[in-house]
Amino acid sequence: MLNPDELSLNETERAIEAFVERDLDVRGLVANKLTPSPDPDETGRGGRYLRERVANERRRLERVREEFDPPLVAEIEWRASDVKGDVLDVVAAELDIETAVGPPTQH
Prior knowledge:
The protein is of the alpha+beta class. The chain contains three helices and two strands.
């Protein structure tokens, strides 16, 4: 799980390296807390801010896709409430990834 900011990307990169050093596989990454895009008719200060933020996050996720070995397998937008209970069910339904857990693998 990574957030779309520089600090989180750097920490994720270091964590992947640490896992690899211990012969642990990282099969995929999930981008979390993505800023939702504003509606096209939102032209005020808030809309401009959100568009710039979304553009920055997309550039960072493109970096993840190009430079990180584990693939980016899912993206989750910010929610107005904590992701638990019914909200967790909604988020889980949005994820189109294989969640079956297999036996641990070692190289």
